[in-house]
């Protein structure tokens, strides 16, 4: 009930003020154990993803965001749970695996923090994303947001194909297998960014062409 209330309160403002097109939404599988990932620009990213996909993702968020009563209530209502980035407690790891075991989609920003400069290139990706997917027996769904969300500016989110952990025993990867999977995932995110940039460029070119012949 609380989630529905928060959704209703936020839906129209986000729809009107942060127009965002989702590309290849069909690539997000249903009924599977998944970890959804994306680059990270602002504290509103999680809310935007929840509303655009009409899905209650469970996501980690820095504990400081929960110190404000209203913001904390809103984030918990939308599926967030606090993480101390300076002291990553085992309880957070355990909770994440429990959520995956219940087939609840978990959203993780693999950079670990916001890209405050708003650059296309992602910050260094943390290896923890591979560990969570490995122990949680989950597929990783890569997504890329085109740019920092701003009021009334059109934005884009592209969904990639599911990323599957590879190894002799995917639940217990060796150090070498961890590194190999992390490298593969980094390349997937880079290629998805290229695919998204090409899509947006083609839309801009088409709009300019239409205006020219209007």
- Largest sheet report: 7 strands, mixed
From the alpha carbons, calculate the radius of gyration and give it in angstroms.
Answer: 18 Å
Q: Structural class of the helices, strands and pairings?
A: alpha/beta
Specify the helix fraction band.
Answer: 40-55%
Could you characterize what this model shows?
The chain is an alpha/beta fold and 214 residues long. It has six helices and seven strands; from the N terminus they run αββαβαβαβαββα. The chain has helices at 2-17, 45-53, 69-77, 90-101, 128-135, 175-212, and strands at 20-23, 34-38, 58-62, 80-83, 106-108, 139-145, 155-159. A seven-stranded mixed β-sheet has the order 1-7-6-2-5-3-4, sandwiched between helices. Helix 1 (2-17) crosses helix 2 (45-53).
Essential attributes:
214 residues; alpha/beta; seven-stranded mixed β-sheet; globular
Question: What is the element layout, followed by pairings?
Answer:
Layout: H1 2-17, E1 20-23, E2 34-38, H2 45-53, E3 58-62, H3 69-77, E4 80-83, H4 90-101, E5 106-108, H5 128-135, E6 139-145, E7 155-159, H6 175-212
Parallel strand pairs: 1-7, 2-5, 2-6, 3-4, 3-5
Antiparallel strand pairs: 6-7
Summarize, please.
By secondary structure, the chain is of the alpha/beta class.
């Amino acid at each position: 009930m609380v989630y529905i209330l928060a959704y209703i309160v936020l839906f129209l403002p986000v729809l009107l003020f942060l127009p965002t097109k989702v590309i290849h939404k069909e690539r997000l599988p249903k009924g599977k154990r998944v970890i959804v990932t994306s680059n990270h620009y602002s504290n509103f990213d999680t809310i935007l993803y929840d509303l655009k996909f009409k899905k209650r993702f469970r996501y980690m968020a820095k504990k400081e965001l929960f110190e404000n009563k209203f913001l904390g209530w809103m984030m918990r209502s939308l599926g967030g749970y606090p993480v101390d980035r300076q002291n990553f407690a085992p309880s957070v790891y355990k909770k994440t695996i429990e959520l995956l075991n219940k087939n609840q989609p978990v959203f993780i920003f693999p950079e670990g923090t916001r890209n405050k400069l708003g650059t296309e290139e992602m910050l260094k990706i943390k290896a923890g994303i591979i560990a969570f997917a490995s122990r949680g027996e989950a597929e990783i769904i890569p997504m890329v947001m085109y740019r920092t969300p701003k009021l009334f500016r059109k934005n884009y989110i592209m969904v990639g194909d599911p990323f599957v952990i590879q190894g002799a025993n995917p639940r217990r990867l060796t150090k070498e297998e961890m590194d190999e999977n992390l490298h593969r995932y980094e390349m997937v995110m880079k290629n998805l960014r290229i695919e998204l940039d090409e899509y947006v460029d083609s839309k801009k070119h088409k709009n300019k062409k239409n205006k020219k012949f209007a």
